[in-house]
Amino acid sequence: MALGILIFVVLYGFGNGLINTFNEFFEDDATNTFFVFPGRTSKPYKGYKSNRQIEFDNSDIADIEESFPLFVEYISPRVDRSGMVKYKNESNNYTTRGVSESYQFAEKTLIMKGRYLNQEDIKDKAKYAVIGRLVEQDLFNNENALGKYIDITGSAFKVIGVFQDEAGDDEERRIYIPYTTRQLIEKNTDKINQIVIGFKPEIGYAGAMTFERKLGEFLREKKFIDPNDQRGFFIRNVADQLKQNQQFAGVLQIIVAFVAFGTIIAGIIGISNIMVFVVKERTKEIGIRKALGATPKSVISTILLESVFITTISGIVGMIRELPC
Predict the structure, then answer these.
(1) Which of 41, 90, 285, 313 is paired with 209 by a 20 to 30 Å CA distance?
(2) CB-CB contact of 314 with 2 (8 Å)
(3) pTM for the full model?
(4) What is the average pLDDT score of the chain?
(5) How far lies 181's CA from each of 117, 126, 173, 176, 210, in Å?
(6) Which of 311, 271, 267, 269 has its CA nearest to residue 8?
């Protein structure tokens, strides 16, 4: 019985731990978010050949905002580049991410010093940088990074903020700059790598799924992609992924609980068999007690009391074994 309780506690705790892990995995980013990635078409459509590389540009941002005002809470382009970043004699390779001011909400970025990018920085194509906590440690040691200039692949950027991120070291070794500045450096292009869309939380899960479908139809029509082509672009719906993972974890927890409960039932049956054997071994004792005037009720109560006592002690032992040292 002790082993049955121990297995139940372990397996049920495993199920709860799995759900908590899924929740923590998604907690570092906003869950009301779409990440839209360009791909390659797999089918010809309206005179365009298959295997065509789809590209996003600034007009897509404006068109999505204009077409879905009831769904969109914020939207940001994203342009990722990796390169050498230097400050005085220190240097290292970091991911530089060109974004708008609203990207802070998608990543839940926490500003430790200074400020994040704002609309004026985007409009003016300012050479400002918001660096991760670990970037400051790597390049500046104990020096305050605010107001200093760093060299990002040959261009000087002024550090206006230092951020931290609950996602860990990888996130805190990134640098955010205005996406317009990144486009200016790259021969004044208007191309972007990804589109990050935050939908209004009040539309709920059903509204998010409707928005995803309508957004897919809109992009396929604008980019001349076959309606049945699933490779022209990809939409990562964080809310849908979270719900699916939670459902999976919930089903797994039910299965685990069923197995654990079965183990306890097996323990109960084992105790019952032991008590039957005990009763048979104590036939003479029970006969003497009945001869002395013991009622059937008192005899049964004694046997049940012994079984409950054994079960209780075993259960306590099983739970104590699971407690941390």
Answers:
(1) 41
(2) yes
(3) 0.71
(4) 85
(5) 12, 6, 20, 11, 34
(6) 267
- Contacts (Cβ under 8 Å, ≥6 apart) of 141: 90
> How far is residue 33's CA from residue 208's CA, in Å, rounded to a whole number?
9
Q: For the chain, give the number of residues.
A: 325
- The pair of structure tokens assigned to 74 is 């914020």
- In whole angstroms, give the CA distance from residue 239 to residue 245: 10
Domain boundaries, the chain: 2-23+244-322, 30-238
Q: What is the pLDDT of residues 142-182, one digit of tens each?
A: 899 999 999 999 999 999 999 998 777 788 999 999 999 99
pLDDT tier for residue 231 given thresholds of 50, 70 and 90: very high
What is the percent of the chain where pLDDT is above 70?
A: 81
